[in-house]
Design goal:
single chain; mainly alpha; elongated; Pilus assembly protein Flp/PilA; transmembrane helix; membrane
């Protein structure tokens, strides 16, 4: 049991000291903020939402005809 504890503790210390994933995590946060803004814009403005839905419908029907 103590061997498992030591291995887990060492793994957590390595994970805490690793700084390579910080940049990826920051990109994920920025992407989530951008998605939230886009959703807020499309929910409040129905003309953009309708145009986007119409464009997707046209593209999907053109792809179905291939």
């Amino acid at each position: 049991m103590s061997k498992f504890y030591v291995n887990t503790t060492e793994a957590l210390q390595c994970l805490r000291a690793d700084k390579h994933g910080v940049v990826s995590f920051e990109y994920i946060i920025v992407a989530a903020c951008i998605v939230a803004v886009v959703i807020a814009v499309f929910k409040t403005d129905t003309s953009i939402s309708a145009a986007l839905a119409g464009g997707i419908t046209k593209i999907s029907s053109a792809m179905a005809g291939l």
